[in-house]
Amino acid sequence: MTKPPARTEPAEVSAALATAPATTPFSRRGVLLGGLGIGGLALAGRPAHAQGAAQKPAEIKLGIATYLSGPASVFGVPARQAADMLIEELNAAGGIAGVKVRPIYVDEGPGVDHFVGEYRRLVQSEGVQMIFAGISSADCTACAPLADELKRPTLLWDCGTQRVFEDGTYGYAHRPQANATPEVLAALLYLLKVKPDFRSLAVVNQDYAWGRDSWEIWRTAMNALKPGVRVSAELFPRFGATDFSSEITRLLALRPDVIFSTTWGGDLDTFIRRRPTAGCSSAAPSCCRWRNPRWSASARRCPPGTSSARAATTGSCTRRRRTPTS
Question: Is the overall model pTM greater than 0.90, yes or no?
Answer without folding.
Answer: no
